[in-house]
Amino acid sequence: MAKSIPILGGLTFLFSLLLFKIIWGIGMMPLAASYEAAFVDQAFDGMLKVTIPIFSLVLATLLYCLHQFRAQSGSLEEGVRFHGSRGGLVEVLWIATSLVLTLGLAAFGAKELRAIRGGDQADLDVQVNSSQWSWEFFYPSRNEYGSRLILPKGKRVRFLLTSKDVVHSFWVPEFRVKQDALPGKVVKLFLTPTKIGTYQLLCAELCGTEHTAMTAFVEVVEPEDFDRRMKGEAW
Amino acid sequence: MEPAATLGYLGGLLAFLAGVGGFAVFLDWLKGKEEDEKTTGWHPPQSSECQPGSRRDPTGWQRYFRFTMDHKVIGIQYLVTTLVVFIVAGIMAILMRLELARPGMQFLSHDSYNTVMGLHGISMIVVALIGIMGALGNFTVPLMLGSKDMAFPRVNALSYWILPPAVIILLSTLVTGGFDTGWTAYAPLSVKGPIGKLFFLLAFVSVGFSSIFGSVNFLATILGLRTKGMTLFRMPIFVWGILSAGVIVLLATSVVASSLIMVIFDRVLGTAFFDPSRGGNALLFQHLFWFYSHPAVYIMILPAFGVILEILPVFSRKPLFAYPLAALSFIAIVVISFIVWAHHLFTSGMWDLLSIPFMVTTELISVPTGVVFLSALGTLWLGSIRLKVPMLFALGFLFNFLIAGLTGIFLADVPTDLHLHDTWFVVAHFHFTLMGGAVFAFFAGIYYWFSKMTGRMLNEQLGKLHFWLFLVGLNATFIPMFWAGTQGMRRRVGDFPQELASVQLWISLAAILTVVAVTVFLYNLVQSWVKGEPSLSNPWDSRTLEWQVASPPPR
Q: Are the beta carbons of B349 and A69 separated by less than 8 Å?
């Protein structure tokens, strides 16, 4: 038992290091183009930092057992009979650790969620009308419609999501935060684009035949270009 | 049209049950023959009609096609049905992987892709629901408890015979307009559209009834028909898995059935439960649906935990580590599973503050799940491990389920779920849970109990080949999906951007391995069933009661 601890510790460290190298090397997340995306990515990295060592520890123990306690072929040997650890120490420690970890993760998650949602104030309102299978954008302050979502960089936008028929979902992977649009209800979503570029808005909730094709372009422009760009696009 | 189709299906279902002999006993009673009080009581196996060779319970191969009440026959019926549905689901998966091998639409239309995807989903749900509980549970639980049969043999036969018509009407959706809702059937999408959607709903409701009947039977058998001296905490851990899953089925299935029946009412009778323009609420469906459908995951996984914790001690040659704690963790999972459903609704437009408690409860489930892992690792510790095929699958389960459980935490966490919800990250996660978990445990159970069921051994070499192909294929297929999901690959779409072309092609190629693996398994199964090596009654030197009788067990 005592000699297994350094081996298990070493293996766990090794596996963790390897996995961190690989996962960070690949890069899990796409470009982050909104203020909120930073918090999502932070939460994602936090989760990886907790789960990778757990994965490595269990895998190390599993492999150690298979290597150390494997019977020779044809052997009739029995295992060492015991029903639990001495005084239940291992069980109590295991449960206590997992309880603390999960509650800690939940607290961390709640804090991040608050940061992502922010307050109720916004610089610009955009009404997003979804229907099978297209998006339409309405800018109440300018009384203009568009089929392409144009947003000024660095301005906090309040999206008012509506649906004419079934449930759709508003998702720009680069903005991270996803929100369903429900029929008969206006759902609010706050986002602050931070990077100039063209992205794709995807419908993320299965909405029927052409769900796959229910996409629209999103353009983030400098605030001073916003007026000019809107004039070129609106109808 | 739709009311007629609904009534027609119900009539057809009853006619089918009559055809296989489901009502024979009532007809006899009407004619005044043979008062049959004993089957309604607590000790059914003694009643005359359950005796072998009697008119209504023929011996020989015919009994597999009749309303037979022997739990061992029903177990085999469930097993074969599960494998047939599994093959159907596999064919659907192959079609999807062919379509997704390259960007753009190859040979499926958007509509047929949706139907194929939905059929794959619901078929695999059925496999995971009935595979372990229906097939392995029916065969082994009464034997493990030292009981002669299940508590209600006729209800047991009924719960099986509802399935074939349900599967047939489910497959009929391929030619009746399909259903583009996926297996989740979200309203209001499921309220409109072709009649195929109605058939899908009817099939789903039927499967629900079947599993409620099955669970009542298991609960009554486990609580009432244990042999003398077998207290609850002396039962094999597999029986604990079935018992706790049975509790969830009984309490939750009626809720999903009600939500689906409400959709059927909206379609057939013109009600407006989910139509906001007439005062309905679209979000209501999602709450009712997930109130069952998340616990349903535990209906699939608790029996799987049972199989794995049953097998590990046998092949480590020592008792299960912390057995009472493992049984209690099953109960804890049952309790918590009822208060986690809204983690499927973090992005749905539900009140944001509700997300927090559901995040906490969902993450709490990892505590009892961790206990299962502790129990498994503690059993291996200082054991004398033999790597027979059932053990390999049990170990493979531990590896896969570790990935499944840990990636589940990303989805339980609201901030990360806002990005990951409805992406391939979720797809990869639940394939590790159900394919790497439930199906792995199902295979482990088949390799373990096959000799008890048939009196023959499965081929060990082919079994090992099956294991390695399946394990490598599964991981090579689904691990890249986590990455594709975070990159922006949505669920349930038949097309994808050019940037994901190479990873999609890789996934399609890796999926070939799993297809080969399953083919090897099916060949092994058929070949060994027909002319496999005869087995001893207790080839693994197990301690549980089912191994103390002959293989196959006498009736």
A: no
